[in-house]
Amino acid sequence: MPKHRLPDWIPDGIYISLGAMVMAFALKSFLVPNGFLDGGVTGLSLLLHEIFHTPNWVLGLILMAANIPFIIMGYFSVSKAFVLKSVISIFLLGLFFFFIPFPEFIDHAKYDRILISIFGGFFLGLGIGLGMRGGCALDGIEVLALYTVRHSPFTISEIILAINVILFLLAAFVVSFDVALYAILTYYIATRTIDYVIEGLEEFTGVTIISGLSELIKLRLAKDLGRGITIYKGERGFLKGSFEQSTDVDIVFTVVTRLEVRRLRNIVHHIDPAAFVFTHSIKEAAGGVLKRKSEH
């Protein structure tokens, strides 16, 4: 009998709502009261707010208006569902920013400016990341980069970097040099937080093992670690002094948590000290035989 599943829009709606609320908290409690900036469309909105000294409620309108062109780009670059979710998320952001009385951590002797920049960036990135988890854009810079990359030889990362360099230079000349430096720190923390939220809270590690004793290794991985394994058929050999000589080999691949990598290496080394083992990070994994809790 099939299990009942929640409609996809319920978790998406939760992510979008939480993302908008956390982002509004970051802006209203940390960045805006202290005149701090960020990168992307949010940074541009904050820069306009600082230059023209607009009231906070006007900043909310600027944030909403500044994202509209990029939402339209998203219609052609992503999907209609993305546009709908982004419109809802921007509306919720403005709503939370206008009406929720978040506390203001204003810079004075009690609060260090670096801490405000760090935690402002953290909560900003957390909000944007949650929104992206829900399938929307609370900051349109990613959409702009995605749209531009199709019409230029540059990568998305290079486009985003170029846009933010221009923004930070404007902040340095128009506002002040220290504000630009704090903006760079805030942006860096925000981007690292976004990566962490988007790529997954539990990072898995892919492990590839090449050994002549692959049968024993497969048995131990399945019985001791309880892991599913995938086998690639390959050849080993082709050394400099004997290039024509090679043998068939089963290449073992499995996915473990970071905490299990050391145990896996010990198992393989005990069976075959000469086995070739290499690992790479997997940001998020689902399905298959994956245990969320490791036994040690």
Strand share of the residues?
Answer: 5-15%
The unreliable regions are 292-296
How much helicity do the residues have?
55-70%
Radius of gyration: 25 Å
Average residue-wise pLDDT = 82
What are its keywords?
10 helices, Alpha-Beta Plaits, disordered C terminus, alpha+beta, elongated, 2 domains, 296 residues
Report on this model:
This protein is an alpha+beta fold and 296 residues long. It folds into two domains: 9-199, no CATH class; 204-282, Alpha-Beta Plaits, CATH 3.30.70. 58% of the residues lie in helices and 12% in strands. It contains ten helices and four strands. It has helices at 9-31, 40-52, 56-77, 80-99, 113-133, 141-149, 156-174, 177-199, 214-225, 261-271, and strands spanning 204-210, 229-237, 246-257, 276-282. It has a four-stranded antiparallel beta sheet, covered by helices on one side. A hairpin with an 8-residue loop joins strand 2 and strand 3 (246-257).
